[in-house]
Hints:
Helix content: 25-40%
Number of domains: 2
Low-confidence stretches: none
CATH architecture of the largest domain: 3-Layer(aba) Sandwich
CATH topology of the largest domain: Aminopeptidase
Bound molecules: ligand BES, manganese (II) ion
Structural class: alpha+beta
Amino acid sequence: MAPLLDDLLKVLSFQSISTDSAYEKEVKKNAEWLHQKLSGIGLNSEIYQTARHPIVLAKNEHLEGRVNVMLYGHYDVQPVDPLELWDTPPFEPTIKNDKIYARGATDNKGQHMAHLKAIEQLITEDGELPVNLTILLEGEEEIGSPNLVPFLEEHKESIPADVIIVSDTGMVAPQTGTLGYGLRGIICCEVLLDGPSGDQHSGVIGGSIANPATEIARLVSSLHEEDGRVAIEGFYDDVEPLAEWERKMWKDIPDMDEKTWLKLTGAPNLHGETGYTTSERLWARPTAEVNGIGGGYQGEGSKTVLPAKAFCKLSFRLVPNQEPDKVFENIRAHLEKYASPNVKITVQKGHGGHPYRSDPHDSFGKIAQKSLEEVFRKEPVLIREGGSIPIIGDFKKILGADTLMLGLALPDAQIHAPNENFPIENFVKGVELGKAILNNLGSMKK
Ligand code: BES
Ligand code: MN
């Protein structure tokens, strides 16, 4: 087993945290390693510097008459904090109970390295690949891929794609082949409320001016109706209703039941928009979430202060056909309308991305289903995703191709959290799947 995992264990030791400039060299080391690896297995690989983190682009020899396939992955990872909650160091990959524990184990190093291993094995066994392949590995996915769109615009002529393969999404349950055919979009923003010019005594002054912490709480609670719907005017205007075939299909998906979901999350109860099941709420309905809220004294004991400022960080998950920019204007209007006139409000727009949906039953979707069935030996489940990979919508716009999302991330993989892990079994199946999909795409007629 060990040689199969060597490359993955190596890349998991790079501290490729894209958001924190202190790790810039580590991100670069990871990119260099991938570039050497891809060159080493006989591909024509190049590293492109961007304004921030490098992009690695590698190709085999492209021949007339074969399907053009693009494989995408990201080698950057999320920060590791809170570090004290990790049982083993995040950048010293550790195997326990047949799982690899490390930051990036599932999101996304384990998943793209399985495909690279598949490609290496195909080249070793058959001398060449069955398709015209372009591999694109970026180092900025976790910060919203700011440099990838301009890169694609500039290089689209040299990135031929009839179809795109990505393993960076969920597998609903162990050993259950999962084809993702949709993603939610996202729009993020920060809201700052300014009250008095400095912190005030909550007795001497309190009661005579507005408290920004109280007002941020009021603002946050204005975001939802009692029934869980988002209360922003116009928010649902462009939401495409859930199709009957999807509702029916999602009813039977394993491990999406109440009991499993409560166990997975540790929450005391389920909660969401009335009238929808958990899968429907996650995959086909938009949301408003508070990612952070603060202001005032956070230390031990009490402090009688009326804080000068308070803030919240919000993100909204979007579904087809919501437009992030348009939704943001509705959000801004809502926040400005509901904020107390007795504080000053600033709304700052953060990063965003379009929702995405493709047809899981078109000719490429069928090939994906067949490949999943070959590897997992049962009919795959077809899902949309609650998470976002904004670049996938841009691929469609710029390269004109749909993406097959062959998810290998289990619900308990702890991505973005302490003790992120990836079962060795998923890596092994990922290698098989990587070979199956390329072979099956290779046998398609052009
Ligand atoms: N791989 C995830 C997205 C994901 C995970 C989709 C599991 C489906 C199932 C990706 O790396 C990610 O974390 N995306 C961010 C995007 C954001 C930074 C723009 C997200 O969804 O929050
Ligand atoms: Mn991620």
